[in-house]
Amino acid sequence: MIYDLIVIGAGPAGYLGAERAGHAGLQTLLFEKRNVGGVCLNEGCIPTKSLLYSAKIKDNADHGEKYGVTVTGAKLDHKAVIARKNKVVKTLVGGVSATLKANKVTVINAEAKITGKTADGYTVTDGAETYTAKKLLIAVGSVPAMPPIPGLKESVQSGYALTSREMLDIEAVPDNLVVIGGGVIGLEMASYFKSAGSNVTIIEMLPTIGGPIDKDIAGILLKNLKKKGIDFKLNCTVTAIKDNIEYKDADGNAQSIDADKVLLSIGRRPMSESIGLETIGVLAERGAIVTDSNLQTNLPGVYAAGDVNGKSLLAHTAYREAEVAVTHMLGNKDTMRYSAIAGVIYTTPEVAGVGMTGKEAAEAGIDIIEKSITMNYSGRYLAENDKGNGIIKLVVDKKWNKLIGVHMISNYASEIIYGAAMMIEKEMTIDEIKQLIFPHPTVGEALREAIFQL
Prior knowledge:
Layout: E1 2-8, H1 12-23, E2 28-31, H2 38-43, H3 45-62, H4 78-102, E3 106-108, E4 113-118, E5 121-125, E6 130-138, E7 142-144, H5 152-158, E8 161-162, H6 164-167, E9 176-180, H7 184-196, E10 199-204, H8 215-228, E11 231-234, E12 237-241, E13 245-248, E14 254-257, E15 261-264, E16 268-270, H9 277-280, E17 284-285, E18 288-289, E19 302-304, H10 315-329, E20 343-345, E21 350-355, H11 358-363, E22 368-374, H12 379-384, E23 391-397, E24 402-410, H13 413-425, H14 430-434, H15 445-452
Helix pairs in contact: 1-10, 3-4, 3-7
């Protein structure tokens, strides 16, 4: 049998692409070497949110007296949290599998490798059988980046150093946890394990946390996490991992810190090696498969979506890329755009941003207006946050009077930011946004208030 499409990898890009293709009537074959759902569903987005919600309940219990609620003896049962996380993941994996079946997608649980091209299409093997399809969608995702730190490889092998995959299944909460990397994964995991009872230290080589997020918001997040009890070593570089962690401090002095476990979270890289790209000549740069605005590679009929193309390592980006790729396969017009993709850090408080920061806009030569206001302009925020220090910041293109960036730190930030993304995606002017009606009372009203203060 010759398939219309073979999809390699069943993460967000792969399984959604397969679903859309199957629904459109394409004979679709999907390969996944681990579990359907990929990193996001099994060891990333969903598991971490399950853990963080448990931590949030614990933290609210600990500080309920501010809101007239006193709780005595609240405890976080880590084993119970992990069991619930596994139940959530199992339910969602089952749902994805059922949807694939409903769309008549054939799923093979095996590692796939591209082997070449024939007159009938591209060939892929699982080591036992060879399959052929007219088109390919490569969606094999990414893996944790492994820097050349002396002793790291041995520490990973011994179980002393862990990636987020292993950390999400750890049976006991470590007394002392050192997190290498102050990006999204590191901050979220640090937040959970601090609530669970660990003494947590984050070592970050940059002077700020949160990667590319707005620096004012990064500063507020840092203040909140320090208040929670997380220790930060900024402008520091890990030099070796032995029985402890050796690093150079901000002044270049050698330091060390003890830990029961080490979490490595310095980012991820596309996983494009060992899948046979060279057999058909797919172009990749620094491990990332090169794609155009339709997610097509340099070869006709071969597409790459999700982390493997290195453009935006986010699950929601992968979903949209898969949709664009399948739409193009079907001969219809669609274009992938990356200017209004929101990013979220699910700590407490949450951080969310979309579009350009003021710094990015200035570097691009755009004449901007920046407006930052306290979230206390929202009555609901004030009611739900005792002494909250959240803000929302707008970045406006002065010439065209259009919103090009929104950045915030607040409860519900992850649920509010999509509205800002729509405003930026649709290139709404400030005058057009002023005509929108926001429900009251909501935390999101702070966005409207900031617009009217421009």
